[in-house]
Write a structure and sequence with these properties.
Shape: globular
Number of strands: 40
Mean pLDDT: 88
Helix content: under 10%
Largest sheet: 22 strands, antiparallel, barrel
Distance between the termini: 23 Å
Length: about 675
């Protein structure tokens, strides 16, 4: 199975006819690697696994993985949490190129249909040495399918609860001259659902979306070429009453191209270009004469030149340079548009110390016109201890630059009574409000906004072991720790005369996440495959720990009860993190008659807010109770047809207040046709 970005991997793969594809890895190092020798933690989700789940959205696929949580964002959509790090720290790629549109910090995974995804690669831990900003916690790369026969066609239709319809068509063709052309189309619509008693607005309003994708591969002599175009459209209407209604429209465009020159078996030159644009326009009419509009328009251009020199079978040198240019136009900003340009330079060396020990060393330098430059090294080493046991150790530095919202936001919510302003905009806005006599109390001096909001940086460490007890059972164990400096958070900086609080962003000192991940896969009687996963997570703020240790933090059991000093053992940790996570997947192939697939995920309790007013999460706050979500499906394969019936959220778990992305039990059927 190939792991990697089609924009730079597919063309390389075409040049190696003798390589076993199931062993080839690309994305983790941007070079061809044997999967078994990869020295950093990675997870591959194959097309077969995607098919077993009958899922059509990326969020459903990722939620099956140990140590990964799909978390709802307050701005809407579902994000990903890896090793206790929020979705804003995970870089999402399609064929090696980034997806944008993080309006509130979270990238909505439900925007991405997976009907044309060949496989998914998850890299845990910092990957900034290759990918720069936003890869502080890890990388998720989606590899799109390409045609494998002269003519191929596949279609699927899934209907489920809430009148949800999902239709996909995938067409492929390989011409006599070697052109590889693939076209994909997806149509999705749903009536939405409502978890609240409020008759005005649903939890999720009815919406529909369309995805179109076209890719082209071509190889001639020493040259190969890859290009793709992705288009996404989403429409949603909502109504409060006869006179109050609105609509939300998302349009997304991605254009990707790669030219590859292979001089000989030792030297390759790769030139990639990528452009993407994301637009979100929202209109709300309170009556015929009152209109509220909001807009979000983000563009990104990326160009990268990469050279790969294979010194010998055991040593490879990669170096490259790249350019990023980003532009954003948005309402609720203190300026009409903001932009950022950056240059990057990187180098990577892969080699062997001994016959059984290989390593990867890499480093990247990012130069920004708005922030300080960043240097991001990474080192990883793998040792084959014996025939059944191997170890992996990796350490790397990651970083994430402040997003535009944290720098330039100027937003007020009059109904809830608060305002949020960006770091760069804070001094000007506060000065204007003071001159108008609207500030009653200045909590933070304006001098604190003289400098710059610092990028968040991390040191990521992973220690893992792969153990094979026999031909049918494999264990993976990974210990991890992520130490983050200059974490960007927000706090109250001033109060208005009307009592409203004004928030802005600032840098925290240090936070960390650490724990252990365990996964085992076993085949029983050649018919049953069982996968078990578990994660223990500790995620805490060092400043909060010190405050508790110094006796500076108090709590109360009820709003009316007296306060008392909390102890270090009472500190639960960061918000929206569970200490325990358990996954179970069972697939059973009953000869040639039918297949049964069952999966279950347990998440222990976690807190979403500070309910007792001491500015941290302790055991005396309110928690979201632990939950168990189970799915089951049965499939019948007949020639070119696969018919599936299934139930998601089998036991109908819901939490109206805290988990809006669980709508309750969903019953579905799906028909897949291959020609």
């Amino acid at each position: 199975m190939i792991i990697g970005s089609a924009s730079y991997s597919q063309s390389n793969i075409d040049t190696i006819s003798n390589t076993k594809l199931e062993e080839v890895v690309v994305t983790a190092t941007k070079t061809l690697r044997q999967l078994s020798t990869l020295p950093m933690p990675a997870k591959l989700i194959t097309k077969d696994e995607i098919a077993k789940s009958s899922s059509t959205k990326l969020s459903d696929i990722l939620d099956d993985q140990p140590g990964i949580f799909i978390v709802p964002d307050f701005g809407g959509g579902n994000g990903i949490q890896i090793q206790g790090l929020d979705s804003q720290y995970t870089l999402l790629l399609i064929d090696g190129s980034p997806i944008i549109g993080r309006q509130s910090g979270t990238l909505d995974l439900d925007r991405i249909s997976i009907g044309n995804i060949e496989q998914v690669e998850i890299i845990k831990g910092s990957s900034s040495s290759l990918y720069g900003t936003d890869a502080l916690g890890g990388v998720v790369n989606l590899i799109t399918s390409k045609a494998k026969d002269s003519i191929s066609a596949e279609a699927s239709y899934k209907i489920s609860t809430f009148n949800t319809n999902d239709i996909s068509v995938n067409l492929g063709k390989i011409s006599q001259n070697g052109d590889n052309l693939n076209f994909y189309f997806n149509s999705f619509n749903s009536n939405g659902y409502d978890l609240n008693d409020d008759p005005i607005l649903n939890t999720v309003e009815p919406y529909k979306s369309y995805t179109g994708f076209l890719r082209h591969n071509f190889k001639k002599n020493k040259w190969s070429y890859f290009s793709s175009v992705r288009i996404y459209n989403e429409n949603q209407d909502f109504r409060l009453d006869e006179n109050s209604y609105g609509k939300n429209i998302i349009n997304e465009l991605g254009i990707n191209s790669s030219i590859n020159y292979i001089k000989n078996k030792n030297y390759k030159l790769i030139f990639e270009n990528y452009y993407t644009n994301y637009k979100n326009d929202e209109e709300f009419r309170l009556n015929q004469n009152s209109i509220e509009e909001s807009f979000f328009n983000q563009s990104l251009f990326k160009s990268e030149l990469r050279s790969i020199y294979t010194i010998n079978k055991k040593n490879t040198l990669t170096f490259g340079l790249g350019f990023y240019s980003e532009l954003l136009k948005r309402n609720n900003f203190n300026r009409e548009e903001v932009s950022q340009n950056s240059f990057n330079y990187f180098v990577q060396y892969e080699g062997f110390i001994f016959e059984n020990t290989n390593y990867v060393f890499g480093a990247r330098y990012d130069q920004y016109d708005e922030y300080e430059s960043e240097f991001s090294p990474r080192f990883a080493i793998r040792t084959q201890i014996n025939d059944n046991i191997s170890s992996k150790i990796s350490i790397g530095k990651g970083f994430k630059t402040p997003d535009y919202r944290q720098l330039y936001f100027n937003f007020s919510n009059s109904s809830s009574g608060y305002s949020v302003i960006g770091f760069n905009a804070a001094k000007e806005i506060i000065s204007n409000l003071q001159s108008l006599g609207q500030i009653s109390n200045l909590i933070i001096s304006q001098d604190e906004f003289e400098g710059k909001l610092k990028p968040e940086t991390s040191i990521s460490f992973n220690l893992g072991f792969n153990i094979k007890t026999n031909k049918s059972t494999v264990f993976d164990i990974n210990f991890f720790r992520n130490q983050i400096s200059n974490l960007i958070d927000y706090k109250i900086i001033a109060s208005k005369v009307n009592g409203q609080s004004i928030f802005s962003y600032y840098n925290l000192n240090k936070v960390y996440t650490q724990g252990i991940e365990f996964n085992s896969t076993s085949t029983v009687f050649n018919d049953i495959e069982i996968s078990i996963g578990y994660q223990f997570l500790e995620a805490k703020d060092n400043d909060s720990k010190n405050q508790i240790k110094n006796g500076e933090v108090f709590a109360r059991r009820t709003p009316s009860s007296p306060t008392f000093q909390i102890k270090p053992k009472d500190y639960f940790g960061l918000y929206n993190r569970s200490k325990h996570n358990f996954n179970l997947k069972i697939s059973y192939a009953f000869e040639d008659y039918f297949d049964i697939y069952f999966k279950s995920k347990y998440r222990s309790k976690y807190g979403l807010s500070d309910s007792n007013g001491n500015n941290l999460l302790d055991d005396f706050d309110d928690f979201v109770e632990s939950n168990l979500i189970s799915d089951i499906s049965i499939s019948k394969n007949y020639k070119n047809y696969i018919l599936t019936f299934g139930v998601e959220n089998l036991f109908d778990y819901t939490d109206r207040e805290n988990i809006p992305n669980y709508p309750g039990r969903i019953i579905y059927s799906k028909l897949n046709i291959k020609l």
